[in-house]
Amino acid sequence: MKKKWMMGTMAAALMLTAGTGVYAGAKLQEVKAYLNGDIQLKYNGTPVQPRDEKGNAVLPLSYNGTTYLPVRAVADVMGVAVSYNPQTSTVEMGEKSEGVAIAKGFENMYYTKDPKATTYQGKDYKEAYFDNAGSKRSSSFMLFPKGKYQKLVLQVAAVGEDIDNFFIEDSGKKAKLKTDKLAVKDGLKTIEVDIAGVDELFIYADIKENGAMFVPLTTSYFK
What we know:
Jelly Rolls; 21 strands; signal; Mao_N_sf
């Protein structure tokens, strides 16, 4: 869900943490500004302390009658994903304009490119997670959005037997973001989950004997 927000008379400045050299060649103008510890930030009526990605407290900047807030800290408070693209000098907040397939960097013993295992209902997805071990078992894999994305769009199908226990968990907080049941008759199911601020995701299912779980990695994506 896209979020709209307003900071009263304060303007949010684009102040992302960046490595040395990121801004080389950028059109920067030097100004004299002041860290302003007198300004307090509230979100939905509750006082909050903006922090950087390392957990350190950060202060607003006052310049020429305007107060600037670090965009990463504000985004974290509001549960909005934020990232910086140094190639295009673009700050992206919320959902990305294009999805990023979870196939990139995916590692698991059930990862496969075998066409016999990546094909589901006549379509070859090229890369897939396909757990067909053939016994009653738990099946799981990890994803690592690293707080860069707003949403996970995951496609998943039960094969052979229904899956009665399926969930997606914020691994760091041990909090379930989504629980579901997967029926064979439903085919490939699309599940959307808000993952703003989440570093690691744990995807889990209980698989019955003679059952399997199929996840196409090329059409499941972060956004």
